[in-house]
Amino acid sequence: MTAARTLPPTPLSEPLVDLVAQRFRVLGEPMRIRLLDLLREGEATVGELQQSLGASQQNVSKHLGILHGAGMVTRSKRGTSVVYAITDDSVFDLCDQVCGGIRRQLSDMESILKLPS
Question: How do 73-78 and 44-45 pair as beta strands?
Fold first, then answer.
């Protein structure tokens, strides 16, 4: 069962507009989307994420820090490792909507580009 969504008041207040824009800026970096996509499968350490992405530890840690600062991921210490996990699955709702929009756009373009037989 899915929870009912609460729609924001319109017009949006300036502080809310700023918060929404900040969230889009955080999600506007491909590495962060890749990290979120990997974390969709479950929690992971920096080393595990680094290996999956083939990126440097410094780069992965930097982007995880930004996602953590934005409240999108949590981190917890386990022994000598830091484990990251998704804080709020609703970030995937946005990603799914964008992917669906891209699919529709590509389908529309394919329809336009098909030559009559």
Answer: unpaired
The number of distinct structural domains making up the chain is 1
Q: CATH number of the domain that 39 lies in?
A: 1.10.10.10
Q: How distant, in Å, are the alpha carbons of 9, 15, 35, 36, 66 from that of 62? A: 34, 26, 11, 14, 7
State the Cα–Cα distance between residues 114 and 100, nearest whole angstrom.
Answer: 21
Helices (DSSP H) in 4-89: which residue ranges? 14-27, 30-39, 46-53, 57-69
Query: Does the reported pTM lie above 0.85?
Result: no
The H or E element containing residue 4 is none
pLDDT at 87: 94
Give exposure, 98-109, as e/b (b: 16+ Cβ within 10 Å): eeeeeeeeeeee
DSSP state, 72?
A: S
Per residue in 91-104, pLDDT (tens digit) is 888 777 777 777 88
Residue 63 pLDDT class (50, 70, 90 cuts) = very high
Is the confidence at residue 2, as pLDDT, over 60?
no
